Amino acid sequence: MLFEYLLRRFSLLLFMVFTLTVFTFSLSYMFPGELLTNVSGQVNPSFTQSQQLTEKYHLNEGVIVQYLAFLQRILQGDWGVSLSSGQSVFDHVVKLFPATLELCVYALLVSIFVGIPAGIIASAYHKRWPEKVINSLSLLGFSVPIFWLALLLIMVFCLGLGLFPMSGRIGLLYEVEPISNFILLDIVLQGFPYQGLAFVDALHHLALPTIVLAMYPTTVLIRFTRDSMLDVLEQNYIKTARAKGLNRRQLIMHHALRNALLPVIKQIGLQFSTLITLAMITEVIFSWPGVGRWLIDSIYQRDYPAIQGGLLAVSMFVILANMLAEFSHTLLDPLSRNQAHGKV
Amino acid sequence: MRNLLLGVLCTYLLGCIDASQQTIRKTQGLVYCSEANPVSFNPQVTTTGSTIDIIASQLYDTLLSIDPETAEFQPEIAHSWQVSDDGKMITFYLRKDVQFHHTDYFTPTRLLNADDVVFSFSRLFDVYNPYHFVGDANYPYFQSVGLDQLIRQVVKVDDYTVRFELFNAESSFLSNLATDFAVILSQEYADHLAGLEQKALFDTYPIGTGPYKYKSFLRDNLIRYHRNEHYWKHPVPMQQLVFDITTNGTSRIAKMLTKECDITAHPSATQLSVLAARDDIRVDKAPNLNIGYWAFNTEKPPFDNLLVRKALAHSVDFEKIMQAVFYGNGIIARSHLPPSSWAFKAQDNMPTYNPEYAKQLLIEAGYEDGFSMTLWAMPVSRIYNPNARKMAELIQSDLKGIGISARIVEYEWNTFLERIGQHEHDSVLLGWAADTPDPDNFFSPLLSCTATFSGKNPANWCNPEFDLLLTQALDTTDVELRKTFYHQAQQMIIEQLPLVPIAHGMRFQATSADVKDISLRPFGGISLGKARRD
Question: Residue ranges of the ABC transmembrane type-1 domain (chain A) (predicted)?
Fold first, then answer.
């Protein structure tokens, strides 16, 4: 049963990856400028160079052959050369993606640890003041555009009070060797250099971007948890439990929560794709050296190979994250395996 | 688990309050907020001001330099020099205690000697130098001032004596050698890389003799230098020098306020009041030798027509631009040269705002219906033009008045310069900041024919008569005679209008109040070797 389900998911994944690669591949035709330059990242190649490149990219052959060659290169990690830096696009992605991922993971953690308890509290005090407060706060958080929130926080906490730095992952004078490219992990791996100050400084830098990025998913989780809790609390088995004389705490912790969290878990996974998009905005505002800022810079610089590579990496990641979320949801909730068709 | 979390939280909270963070910062180094990525790490191959600020004086030394106050030559790597009577032989006597950088990627085994000097200069013009063609043999400054045509050969006399032999005497030769571009590179390092067949790395992983040495560079983020412990001139106070690449001008100001930067390049005039109001930030202001101009691509019709260029120059209200863009922190140009240059002469026939006359000129030129053109505006703020975008918009609206529709074109800075070099533009708002006080620096690198070939002439303007004037001015050392030639050259620019001079900006620099010993020079890049904290 589970195997069949996985197979279905997997075929869907394959199809989506196929569509994605076809789209990315066709981008080099759709971008303005020389095809050869768009594909290879070589500006004004000499005659021999351009012959070699044509050979390498199979540009003199049919589109299908070119596409297959493209797939092969993608798999080998040869994603072309960035027009503006002259370095391998894949290297850029490998270096920058962890920063984005790091930010997203922390934001997601914050939103889970804040959003779910807040949602539970709201449902436990249904139609009383705690719910009203939480509801109005979450509506506020939901409606605030994050770039505005980010600028507001910078205005108040960085420029006004001078409590937090406004850019980057760590004070630039701290020298942390990139090992995993996850800054906190790197600092721990290097045994807390600068008497732990580097670690503190990194946390300091993380604070505002994480808050900004966590705002949207937190409000979504609050609302989801609350709604799904309220649904569950309406169920007959809860009523029975209540009739048996259980108090509210027992009712919620032992009976309602587990069932209510199922749709929320699925939601957590789905938030990842929204997070990546929002992370781009956050990265630009806080000069966070992640893949989103790089992608936006590349667009500004019309760096086609970089745009291509960046898009591919980000969308691949979103697809994978979604798949993983669905998968974990399925493991936890056997009912959902009965769907006859996959859905995105 | 709970204890650990608590511990982390405590250190975090303490860290916010604890002053130890400040003390560490104090001894660690300096952060300079820079406006663009460096194009290269070798000053020989670029003239981009933002790049020169980052690399030149920090990583390298020159044979001699010019004192910004007295405009006299000062010894650097050469402790003395001698010019022969006919001016064609210049002999430099080198210091014997100059060490090259010791880095992760190269450790020198010997001190700087005559071989390094010969190698550095022969790379510029000698096709037999193994490094001449690395990077497409593009040495824009030297080619545009014609240095590659001037030097017959560079001879090693003994280990610490070098002789330059010139084809003819040129009055600006020594000042050209004193620019930020004429750096001394290590021949030993060059041989080492050639042995590894990695010549291309020579300009990306620099080895010089300057106060700082290269550590790492992360594009769009930062460049890190470490102190050169063996610096020959003086001990370097700062352990590290970090360039934080922040292209957005407002972000640079904000980072000054949050103390993430210690020095910022080119704060914009509108935001100076914010910075000046703070006690912990010092804003320095100094006159600077520069010119911001509007250049036309004179090889492209209709801009090859003098009447059209004149019409365009007369259609724009530059007084208004001065107020809107410079906020009183610049002076309107009265000639191509800034007034502080000794060869300056105010031009009587500078184009004035006169749209009626402009229209008439257009009709004369046969463009009564107007035309459309591109107006390239540089994306960064420089001394000579703090806000090219705004200036472009003002010009655009003025041009509309005489029936010309202009489209504003912007690219990332280095791409922008590259494309201008390929003359893709119709007209461009750009400028030039001098590298030496010699007036030739405003003419040869910008408007000579050789500058056209090396892609540095934004007007794409090659006029043999003009070139002759420049050569004549260089052939003599008689200052009065040179003056008359440069006066003629200035007049010719205004008559022919390959470009319209707009303004001369003041150089600004915002520095944290506790950072000392950074001086603003009227020419060339910034030098941070002596910078220290109190």
Answer: 97-325
